[in-house]
TrEMBL record:
InterPro entries for the chain: Glyco_trans_2-like, Glycosyltransferase_2, Nucleotide-diphossugar_trans
Domain spans labelled Glycosyltransferase 2-like: 4-165
GO cellular component, one term: plasma membrane
Tree of life domain: Bacteria
Matching PANTHER family: UNDECAPRENYL-PHOSPHATE 4-DEOXY-4-FORMAMIDO-L-ARABINOSE TRANSFERASE (PTHR48090:SF3), UNDECAPRENYL-PHOSPHATE 4-DEOXY-4-FORMAMIDO-L-ARABINOSE TRANSFERASE-RELATED (PTHR48090)
Record's keyword terms, sorted: Cell membrane, Glycosyltransferase, Lipopolysaccharide biosynthesis, Membrane, Transferase, Transmembrane, Transmembrane helix
Taxonomy of the source species: Bacteria, Pseudomonadati, Bacteroidota, Cytophagia, Cytophagales
GO molecular function: undecaprenyl-phosphate 4-deoxy-4-formamido-L-arabinose transferase activity
Residues annotated as transmembrane: 228-249, 261-280
CDD domains listed in its UniProt record: DPM1_like_bac (cd04187)
GO biological process: lipopolysaccharide biosynthetic process
Protein's name according to its UniProt entry: Glycosyltransferase
Length: 310
């Protein structure tokens, strides 16, 4: 199996049939499978996907009991993928299926583990573009993503990386966060981006906030360390100002009044509290990461020679 095409399906009764037919046509020269994951759709998507599974031998269909979210549906599809490469593509035709060949070619030429698509001009709604910018900016610091890399949902992942990603069994997967915990060998290639063929995006403020919190809290100790640094800074300022006040008072340069002592005490006390909370949070964060099910290391290649003793 060369390719596994994973498609999270949500209220796509009008687009999933033509998308599957177009994939069958443009990938006809390859050995590939299509994995349709119905993420609790409210329309006839489940019935259409069932018909496609019966019509094509290379189509798998999985229907989730309720709507779990795009990343959960993608993770489910990856768990059932068998290809040397797995490609994630949305069900709205904004990414032309023909561009999958561009992703595969880029991965093979650059020997990349992951290839992201990028767009000269995105056809998303302005709110979706704003949300993407916020998440991409956040991930630059939280998962150590290159600044110039756009984390698109249309991407290709090599088999070895897929095998590591599916080891995650947590209820809040973030596919890009899992990718950057496994590899930094990531490339990108420009592909066309079209307007939606049908309907409108399900990208809402609630989902943006949920994704923000998931990335901010679930995949990095960076928030804890920000408060640790803030506490250390406030404590340092408090100690320095206390020394200066004491020196000034002893030298009869400064007259210490009640409000000055109160401000100094609040500043120093707040710094101590934040510092202690940060240290405690560091321990809890390490414990959380240790029990997240992620590996301590990932082997890319293993070469060994057998020695026969006489």
């Amino acid at each position: 199996m060369q390719l596994s095409i994973v498609i999270p399906v949500y209220n796509s009764e009008r687009t999933i049939l033509p998308l599957t037919e177009r994939l069958q046509a443009c990938l006809a020269g390859l050995l590939f499978e299509i994995i349709l994951v119905n993420d609790g759709s409210n329309d006839r998507s489940e019935m259409v996907c069932q018909q496609l599974e019966e019509r094509y031998d290379n189509v798998q269909f999985i229907s989730l009991r309720r709507n779990f979210g795009e990343f959960n549906a993608v993770l489910c599809g990856l768990n059932h993928a068998h290809g040397d490469y797995a490609v994630m593509i949305d069900d709205d035709f904004q990414n032309p299926p023909e561009a999958i060949l561009t992703l595969v070619e880029t991965a093979e030429m650059g020997n990349y583990d992951v290839v992201y698509s990028r767009y000269a001009q995105k056809q998303h709604h302005w709110f979706r573009n704003l949300g993407s910018w916020i998440v991409n900016t956040l991930t630059t610091y939280s998962i150590d993503k290159p600044r110039d890399l756009y984390l698109s949902s249309f991407k290709l992942i090599r088999r070895e990386v897929v095998d590591e990603i599916v080891r995650n069994h947590g209820p809040y997967p973030y596919i890009d966060g899992l990718i950057f915990r496994v590899t930094r060998n990531v490339g990108s290639v420009e592909v066309p981006h079209n307007a939606r063929a049908e309907g409108r995006s399900s990208y809402t403020l609630r989902k943006l906030v949920s994704l923000f919190l998931n990335v901010f809290i679930g995949y990095s100790l960076w928030p804890i360390r920000v408060f640790t640094l803030l506490g250390a800074a406030l404590l340092s300022v408090g100690i320095l100002s206390g020394v200066l006040l004491l020196v000034g008072w002893l030298s009869h340069i400064v007259v210490i009044k009640g409000w000055g002592i109160v401000v100094w005490a609040i500043l120093t006390g707040l710094g101590l509290q934040l510092l202690f909370l940060g240290v405690l949070g560091e321990y809890l964060g390490k414990l959380f990461m240790a029990h997240s099910g992620l590996p301590a290391y990932v082997i890319k290649k293993k070469v060994s020679s057998s020695i026969t003793e006489k």
